[in-house]
Design goal:
The chain has 201 residues and is of the alpha/beta class. It contains 8 helices and 6 strands.
Length: 201
């Protein structure tokens, strides 16, 4: 269990129930796409973004990223931290069928995986424990994660190796990697993964 000063925004009540077993703090539900027209709740989220900062923790399917991107665009002032759960395929116990994309949502994650997701985003670390990041979109370009013919394959393999969802944008990748490693460490990981991309002569 970790104490979090920022408000955490999740999609649904079952996500909130699961997260309540992992963190002590304010948890706000978007009620899925209802947030697109719920002005009062959006006002509350903006308030927390300005006063304490918010953490966005949505599912790693396309719907989750749609909500995440909507929130990021709707919040003009304040602090936003993105926490991502990995792509894990399966079905939550309470559901008769898997989700459309077959991925487990926040409610289906173990407490260990959720805590690791927060740790990767630097949320549960003190300032002294965070690694200074110098990773930007230009470095990702230089390492072949954007702009190259096989950039999407490279990104997918990198994200998979780090337990991050494959639908992340280049900007989001740079942001989260900066909480996890230095530029030199990213270069080392890229070198280790390079064997995956080597084509035969």
């Amino acid at each position: 269990m970790i104490n979090i000063d920022k408000a955490v925004v999740v999609e649904g009540k079952y996500d909130k129930i699961k997260l309540s077993s992992v963190i002590n703090g304010v948890i706000i539900c978007t009620d899925g796409f209802q947030i697109f027209k719920d002005k009062d709740k959006m006002s509350l989220i903006r308030h927390y973004a300005e006063k304490t900062g918010i953490i966005i923790l949505t599912d790693s399917d396309s719907a989750g990223f749609k909500i995440r991107n909507y929130l990021k665009g709707a919040i003009k002032n304040g602090s936003i931290t993105n926490v991502y759960i990995p792509d894990i395929f399966g079905k939550e116990r309470r559901k008769a069928e898997p989700s459309k994309e077959g991925k487990l949502g926040v409610e289906g994650m173990s407490e260990e995986i959720l805590l690791e997701a927060f740790r990767r985003a630097g949320v549960s670390c003190t300032e002294g424990e965070k690694k200074p990041g110098s990773i930007d979109k230009m470095l990702l370009y230089e390492l072949g994660y954007s702009g190259a013919p096989d950039a999407s394959v490279r990104r997918r393999e990198l994200l998979k190796s780090l337990g991050l969802p494959e639908l992340m944008t280049t900007s989001a990748i740079a942001d989260i990697l900066n909480t996890m490693m230095t530029a030199d460490e990213l270069r080392e990981i890229t070198a280790e993964l390079s064997g995956i991309y080597v084509k035969g002569d």
